Amino acid sequence: MSDPIGEETIVARISRITLALTALLGVAVLSAQSPASAAAQDNPTAFNTREQFLDAHPTPIMDKVCIDRRIELAAGNYDWNQVLGDAKRSNVYLGAGWYTWEDCLIPDDGFYRQETSLNPDNSDWQTIRLKDDERLTQSAIFTWGSFLDPL
Questions:
Q1: Do the beta carbons of residue 64 and residue 107 sit within 8 Å?
Q2: pLDDT, tens digit, for every residue of 100-110?
């Protein structure tokens, strides 16, 4: 006769290990700094996001964290939204070309400031930005950054 408590313990450990490995793989995939592209009809939403533990009570002495990537965009209209913060620009027109896409999370006195930018390689075009402040109700793992949704 088998020991049901022992079997439950083994199953629970396997489940925790599987969950941890899945989370680690997800972080590795999200952290890859490869160029991406988005175009109006055939390409899905493009993301510049990171998953990390955030303290519910940040202070200005904590480190600023930024993620960036290069992205080639087709000319067209996009919805651009922050993840975690609530800033967004709907139906913004972006010219065709390469951009540096950056999201920064800056700890402050009890809140995080999220700053997002799209900086075109074309020097005749201006960098566009999103900014928002976010207070957290709990310390936990959060996904933050932004996404571009081609219209």
A1: yes
A2: 999 999 999 99
